Amino acid sequence: MRIPVPEDTALVIIPSKEISTVIIEWHRLYYPFHTTVPPHITLAFPFILEKNWQRKRSALNDCLKTFKAFDITLRELAVFTGSQRVLWLKPEDSGNLLRIHTALAEKFSDYFVASEFEFTPHLTIGFFESDEMMYEAKNKISSEMKPLHFLVDEIVYMVCDEDEVWRIRDKIILG
Predict the structure, then answer these.
(1) Is the pTM for the entire model greater than 0.85?
(2) pLDDT tens, 81-139?
(3) DSSP labels, 23-71
(4) Residue ranges per domain, the chain?
(5) CA 157/CA 50 separation, integer angstroms
(6) Per-residue pLDDT tens over the stretch 14-66
(7) Side by side, which strands form the sheet with 123-128?
(8) How far apart are the first and last CA of the chain?
(9) Is it true that the peptide bond before 46 is cis, omega within 30 degrees of 0?
(10) Would you call 96 helix, strand, or coil by DSSP?
(11) 46: how many CB neighbours lie within 10 A of its CB?
(12) Are 39 and 14 a contacting pair, CB within 8 Å?
């Protein structure tokens, strides 16, 4: 995945405030972008440029209105290894995230960048310089973590501003 730059956009799910408060505590320890990016699950990045957003919003709304609100539970930590070491939470969602991502990729294929990686819904907790540091954080969080539940009833459109801070620009209600 490439590093975001100003004017980049994304479609994401942002957990409820109660859940985000818990995740922000972990982000402060392990996520270098915790002051510029809220806790989120990415559905599409990069996505429609802001200058084209209003023209495409109706089609996006039509695509997403077929999906009803659904619950997500975050209870399991996982890791990505390789060029980056990433600790993340695995959403339990009965496949809804994958179905939404697939529908978006089909309807808005011009805005999806080809990737060597299969889409894996996840909520990033942190980035690490070594396996040892990553697994130490995983063990620490696992020992104190309780399952986190929240309702997804909207998809959020965000834009990376000139200060590289991600800002909410719009929300699309599901259903």
Answers:
(1) yes
(2) 988 899 999 999 999 999 999 999 999 999 987 777 789 999 999 999 999 999 999 99
(3) HHHHHHHH-TTTTTS-S-EEEESS-S-HHHHHHHHHHHHHHHTTSPPEE
(4) 9-173
(5) 9
(6) 999 999 999 999 999 999 999 999 999 999 999 999 999 999 999 999 999 99
(7) 123-128, 85-92, 70-80, 148-152
(8) 30
(9) yes
(10) helix
(11) 17
(12) yes
Q: Which two tokens stand for residue 146?
A: 């309780």
Residue 61 tokens, joined: 């709304």
22: amino acid identity, one letter: V
Amino acid at 42: T
88 closest CA partner among 147, 150, 17, 26: 26
- Give the other-Cβ count within 10 Å of 27's Cβ: 20
Domain 9-173 has CATH 3.90.226.10: no
Question: For 113-149, b where at least 16 C-beta lie within 10 A, e where not — what string?
Answer: eeeeeeeebbbbbbbbeeeeebeebbeebeeeeeebe
**Alpha-carbon torsion (49, 53, 59, 60), positive or negative:** positive
